[in-house]
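Researcher: I'm preparing a figure for a lab meeting and need a structural model of a single chain. I don't have an experimental structure, so a prediction will have to do for now. The sequence is pasted below. Please return the structure as tokens so I can convert it later.
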Amino acid sequence: MTVMEPQNPAADLREIEDMAQTALSDIAAMRASVGRVIFGQESVIEQVLVTILAGGHALLVGVPGLAKTRLVETLGIVLGLDGKRVQFTPDLMPSDILGSEVLDQANDGRRSFRFIHGPVFAQLLMADEINRASPRTQSALLQAMQEYHVTVAGVRYDLPAPFHVLATQNPLEQEGTYSLPEAQLDRFLMQVDVTYPDLEAERRILMATTGIDQDSAVAVTSAERLRQLQQLVRRMPVSESVVDAILSLVRSARPGEGNSEANAHIAWGPGPRASQAFMNCIRARALYEGRLAPSVDDVRALAEPILQHRMALNFAARAEGISVRDVIGTLRRGIA
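Model: Understood. Here is the structure written out token by token.
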């Protein structure tokens, strides 16, 4: 039995299979085009593309110099999206992101307000070093990321479709930064940790980026085609056993639900939005790997990027030197 079983399961499944076969070539072209520019970050590229295929936003966390910004710029080109960048700084104001109203005066002397769109009106918004802006400015993205529209002076303005926020964050420099509030973090479908490349990948980086000629990404799809792929992802069937695995994992990460690990080490755990993130991301990951339906292995593989920013450790766990990843690893092993 599958979730949201259609009226004609066999015909619907055949249609999904046909669409998935075409989608595989598109996804392969995306990976190849990004791979011409970004080296040694295969898992990062996979997680970010899975996030976009699932229709969500991603928070990229890593030390400086790991090509986080370059990856976002490359994805905008490859996916054919209208991309804009905002460099977050302590003096950045909400109007610098959303836009503002200005007073115009006509030739006859009549005055009226005109709204000037801010950079949030893009299909791919890069929020660079998002934790450098004040909480007031960070909150300007809350409505946009969840409801896909913004409200200025009581007027609603719809955002382009698709709309994705890819934010970067430096985990080292704390001076002059503001922690992202829990409500903001929960808007991100996944937190993608960008790590150092291995030796061979770093060798490729040296050879490919320090000469006269450098490879550049090329557009391989369009915004309309991306929306079709996102609709396909949402139509993919998910078995009851996989749904049970998602619910078991998410609920086990909440203190008070009977899990000894959570009760001992977790201060607060993920809400239902984490379960929704799993449902969409495991489908996207299955399609990314050429499968028609997700498995429990997809739940295990995405447990860390989906959960780590949606839970917090208590004082006892921090005192013992336990990390969120350690706790998630223990909970992940408990999935049947």
